[in-house]
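Following up on my earlier message about adenosine-5'-diphosphate. Here are the inputs again, as you asked, copied directly from the submission form:
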Amino acid sequence: MTRITLVEGDITEQQVDAVVNAANSSLLGGGGVDGAIHRRGGPQILEECRRLRASHWGRGLPTGQAVATTAGQLPARWVVHTVGPVYREEEYDERAELLASCYRESLRVAAELGARTVAFPAVSAGVYGWPLEDAARIALATVVAAGPGPVGELAEVRFVLFGAAAYRTFEQVWQGIESEGREGQD
Ligand code: ADP
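Thanks, got it. Here's what our run produced:
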């Protein structure tokens, strides 16, 4: 069984096998989580991203997909880069599906590498504008649903929330999902 945990903190400080980056499709760096990961992880990560752009991902990484690189100097083995969708109410359904895909694909890539522990930020909930509570619901529900597959081999999926408000939001959404799960068993 995969343990799902929530912590308040900085994703670049997590001692896990794989940290997930809320990247953009250029893979060449940005703000928020992306900026922090490249700053703390050092130039090796960007070098590998450049190689990915020069080879398989010449047009950039499509939204909803994930790809791994070294974690450079971070206390992790790999960075799994995923590209979240920009929030747009008019295209909610397609984009929510893409956000769920970010979690599924990141978990698949991490599991393929042999990672046992994975840390996620709240993908799309920063510059990309996804309302936090809904981003939390999609993130947690998708990871729970992915549990029985190869993802079941993972020991821990950790959500790293930046700031107390984000942590509380995830915690509330998580409590709701857990109590629904319990009712479902009755
Ligand atoms: P996106 O472009 O996918 O919206 P951002 O990096 O802008 O990604 O933000 C995603 C979430 O990560 C936001 O909730 C933001 O507050 C949070 N965040 C920013 N920096 C960090 C960090 N160092 N560790 C963990 N979470 C972070």
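One observation from looking it over: The mean pLDDT is 95. Hope that helps, and feel free to reply on this thread.
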